[in-house]
Specification:
about 160 residues; mainly alpha; 6 helices; about 70% helix; disordered C terminus
Length: about 160
């Protein structure tokens, strides 16, 4: 949404392309970086530093994309403070049985995909005797393949 707010219509496709390229680059760089960070504490420390750096950038450096003319003042009344409740938007999922079923389907699908990936890597390590380097090569190959399929997808 921020890209759509700050870029003119004729440059939005390029902005979204750069964003997707950065995400793809992160997917390709993550497996080789995992060889460097072998201890769980190192991974958590590095991840925490990245999260805090991103939050700090958003809070202190990134300018607001909404023009001053379109901003409304923040009221301290109860009705305005209820608009700040992040869980209020989740109530839309309970209004309709179709939304509940779709939410459950997405949750189960995500869980099974994550479990399938973990079991596959465990199988490769225990049965096929994959090392960490083999896993990195495999994941980079998957990342390159997925990146090419995304670029070839017409929609």
């Amino acid at each position: 949404a921020y890209i759509a707010d700050i870029l003119p219509d004729n440059e939005r496709a390029m902005g979204f392309g750069i964003l997707l390229g950065m995400i793809g680059g992160g997917l390709l760089l993550a497996p080789p970086l995992s060889l460097i960070f072998t201890k769980p504490t190192t991974v958590y420390t590095f991840s925490s530093m990245c999260v805090f750096a991103c939050v700090g950038y958003v809070i202190f450096i990134l300018p607001e994309s909404l023009p001053l003319a379109k901003r409304r003042p923040l009221s301290t009344s109860m009705s305005a403070s209820s608009d700040l409740n992040p869980f209020k938007t989740l109530s839309i999922l309970m209004r309709n049985s179709l939304f509940r079923k779709l939410t459950l389907l997405i949750a189960i699908s995500s869980l099974s995909t994550s479990a399938g990936n973990a079991i596959t890597l465990l199988y490769y390590r225990l049965i096929l005797q994959f090392t960490k380097v083999d896993n990195v090569i495999l994941l980079c190959t998957f990342g390159l393949t997925a990146g090419k399929s995304v670029r070839l997808c017409p929609f």
